[in-house]
């Protein structure tokens, strides 16, 4: 009986392998082809140009421009259709007899030409840093879990290659007899360390591999003054001209991403040791070979505690204050603190005091760090204060301590309240990280996404945006899933099922503010590597600016359905028309060939 069953399954596999070529093209594609080919069976240059301009909304002015794009497409050789022979002949038939319906569909599947997103930076990059969401990592040096994994520069390199702009380093004194005396490690755990020099060298090499907008190093500093001095010296030596020296330590507004292109900036809490006056600090630092660029002033201020001691009022100054200032042996420490403090562009710190006090507006701008737990609690009682704080200051949100396996939380928890730095474990692959990757595919993948205006600005009557408040529908998004392609090229014949082709279906979901979240899916297409669904879904969106379109393809199984590809796209960036949508593996690496052919339509209703 088992042998007979095996023979039947093998017969089914052999007889169904060519089913792809019998599938009828989706009706929309046939109608579009017929319309622009004017009822003919071939689409010539002029007709293809008209289709691209009128239907796809592309800004192409002439057939000559189209020729250049087609030639570029031929040189790139990006075809990944199931029929590579047909696909690579598109430029030839385009020039001679024109495209057939089959050629036209293959052409639409080309991601280089029909991408769903704009691949260029197009947001205004001249606003203060506080007006942007930033692609942010958490414990960027860890290769695995938060307790026992190794520390390395490899995760940092990979993050920078993916476009991450905020890298976190935990700095600790090193007991090993190295010349630097500083290590990067997750303190008070069993994780292994990596030398800070190694990390800085890799950051210098890969900082602008993906994007030339600024890299921010958030430092969790556990160093003594002499080590802070050493870090300042080392950072200046290794990073060189890339390292940005702030003009003052009393910023009332952050600089813009545009003004910081190809620069690396430091964000950490100010050193505990109090500072000397600007002139003394600068003179001592210069005499020790640590001089910032001439056009940038030091701007270091005399602290209140130092002022009290100098004027003789020692009653309210701590013993540590007196020791740091009055002990002659501490002069090198003071110099080291001066040099270290001068590196800090974004002054940061963790939450202290009541939430109301932490979110108070101040003349100086700063960065506040909250755990996801504290943010969730604060959002329930101080939602408006959070948004007002992030209009001028920077809020960093990091995973709760219980996430020892380096998992992540839903990033909208931070984005809804304007948090610029939603810090993620980039090794913690899962749905949450896919949402993060989706958000930062926006704006050409440069790692900075301009926040919606309603989060940046105060609304009429001194109100601020409330993500929990019932809102009217602002946009209607229509998503049509036509077909999928490329699995037979990227997967082995038996990857999904030993004896038959896969049974694919597609999940289409919106993730955003609570009122926008919804899940839908297509029907299952049985026994085919080349599914044609031709199904449309409609989504009513209240806050499309924060909405993400999550797409996942699975193979239906009796037990757990098999993963077959995923992607996530920012709704506000979707290009309308027929679009090729490449899919990624669970870790966010793009498949060579697997993609969907989809259509996006957006209807804007009355504004909020």
From TrEMBL:
Main location: membrane
Pfam (any one): C2
Annotated compartments: Cell membrane
Gene Ontology terms for molecular function: phosphatidylinositol-4,5-bisphosphate phospholipase C activity
GO BP of this protein: lipid catabolic process; phosphatidylinositol-mediated signaling; release of sequestered calcium ion into cytosol; response to stress
Names of the cofactor(s): Ca(2+)
Alphabetical keyword list: Cell membrane, Hydrolase, Lipid degradation, Lipid metabolism, Membrane, Transducer
Membrane-protein topology: Peripheral membrane protein
Annotated EC: 3.1.4.11
InterPro entries named in the record: C2_dom, C2_domain_sf, EF-hand-dom_pair, PI-PLC_fam, PLC-like_Pdiesterase_TIM-brl, PLipase_C_PInositol-sp_X_dom, PLipase_C_Pinositol-sp_Y
CDD domains: C2_PLC_like
Residue ranges of every copy of the PI-PLC Y-box domain listed in the record: 369-455
Recorded superkingdom: Eukaryota
Catalytic activity, as annotated: a 1,2-diacyl-sn-glycero-3-phospho-(1D-myo-inositol-4,5-bisphosphate) + H2O = 1D-myo-inositol 1,4,5-trisphosphate + a 1,2-diacyl-sn-glycerol + H(+)
Residue ranges of every copy of the C2 domain listed in the record: 458-585
GO CC aspect terms: plasma membrane
Name listed for the protein in its UniProt record: Phosphoinositide phospholipase C
Lineage, top ranks: Eukaryota, Viridiplantae, Streptophyta, Embryophyta, Tracheophyta
